[in-house]
From TrEMBL:
The keyword Acyltransferase does not apply. It comes from Salvia divinorum. Keywords: Lyase. The keyword Nucleus does not apply. Its EC number is 4.1.3.36. This is 1,4-dihydroxy-2-naphthoyl-CoA synthase.
Length: 329
């Protein structure tokens, strides 16, 4: 486009994308109309009227946001005409461990999906089948958080957690492989989780000298109960998808089909009703967003010998030795 800046061209491209996303392609109409048989097994008017949703995986189209910056650690995509955005952590060589830049990009993508009124539901996932997310990149951990390009320590995953909780559209965690550490907390702050049969869940913090005393502890307690939460945090065991209760379990090869089906079921319902249900369901827990003190405690802990012992042990592939640290009364 001659005569306009690259940023202006990207802004125009984004606007055109948003507008075209409202248009449903002809092929989708045909497909949906073709699905007239109710396979749910219920022979009632409710099911005859509402029918089932199609399960094919839609074509994903690369999306951009207003900043005009590229997405490097993440992949940001949208469907055409179906109102679904997909945000993928793209560091599979590190089991999708995140660094501050990853969080910045995720926040940009979530912000754009929130702003785009053609989008009604957002999928958060990890690249590949080995991991949804393995938490903070331990190789980048320093005494004041995780450090990448600008040499500042950050714990900015806490901001992403709050953003997901407050975002007025459902966010679905699509989990294949490991969802551990900060990655496990990310799945917990999402509205729903669809897990493949190879999914593994767990908190590793107390083994690697970390913990999440904000949402990571409080939401877990609500989700799986206080005793199971203590077990997960104190013992740092891993659980397979069968053991992790209250989650849908689907074969790995059906994971995306099933997740998209959930999105479509949400998309055909009232956005205002969903928005208010989400706010209402979160209301009892909103006070936890104020638990910044939990994040600050982690920040201080990273600067201690005890915290560092866990990270060192992980990086050196040895067992941590916490025996020299006092168990204070
Ligand atoms: C996830 C695993 C169990 C997978 O094991 P597997 O055997 O399949 O793979 P490898 O271990 O060989 O890993 C392949 C490759 O990836 C690198 N890697 C994996 N995870 C990480 C990671 N988190 N950080 C850095 N690097 C990672 C690994 O080193 C290998 O690299 P090679 O070069 O050798 O090929 C297993 O990988 C595992 O246990 N990972 C660590 C999980 C973990 O402890 N995560 C951190 C928890 S702490 C955290 O996430 C956290 C972050 C925050 O920002 C917080 C903020 C505020 C409060 C608390 C926070 C917090 O707790």
């Amino acid at each position: 486009m001659a005569g306009i800046t690259a940023e202006a061209a990207k802004a125009i491209q984004r606007r055109m994308f948003a507008v075209s996303s409202h248009l449903i392609p002809e092929s989708h109409h045909t497909h949906c109309l073709g699905m007239s048989i109710c396979t749910s097994g219920f022979e009632d008017t409710y099911h005859r009227v509402h029918d089932t949703v199609p399960t094919h995986i839609p074509p994903w189209k690369a999306a951009i946001d207003d900043s005009g910056k590229d997405f490097v650690d993440t992949i940001y995509e949208k469907t055409i005409g179906e109102g679904i955005a997909k945000i993928t952590i793209n560091r599979p060589e590190r089991r999708n461990a995140f660094r501050p830049e990853t969080m910045k990009e995720l926040m940009r993508a979530f912000n754009d999906a929130r702003d785009d009124n053609s989008i009604g539901v957002i999928i958060l996932t990890g690249k590949g089948t080995k991991a949804f997310c393995s938490g903070g990149d331990q190789a980048l951990r320093s005494k004041d958080g995780y450090v990448d390009y600008d040499n500042f320590g950050r714990l900015n995953v806490l901001d992403l957690q709050v953003q997901i909780r407050r975002l007025p559209k459902p966010v679905i965690a699509m989990v294949a492989g490991y969802a551990v550490g900060g990655g496990h907390v990310l799945h917990m702050v999402c509205d729903l989780t669809v897990a493949a049969d190879n999914a593994v869940f767990g908190q590793t913090g107390p083994k690697v000298g970390s913990f999440d005393a904000g949402y990571g502890a409080s939401i877990m307690s609500r989700l799986v109960g206080p005793k199971r939460s203590r077990e997960m945090w104190y013992m740092t065991r891993f659980y397979n998808a069968k053991e992790a209760k209250k989650m849908g379990l689907v074969p790995l090869e059906k994971l995306e089909e099933e997740t998209v089906k959930w999105c479509r079921e949400i998309m055909r319902n009232s956005p205002m009703a969903i928005r208010l249900c989400k706010a209402a369901i979160n209301a009892a827990d909103d006070g936890h967003a104020g638990q910044q003190i939990g994040g600050d405690a982690t920040l201080l802990f990273y600067g201690t010998e005890e915290g560092n012992e866990g990270k060192d042990a992980y990086l050196k592939r040895r067992k941590p030795d916490f025996s020299r640290f006092p168990r204070l009364p």
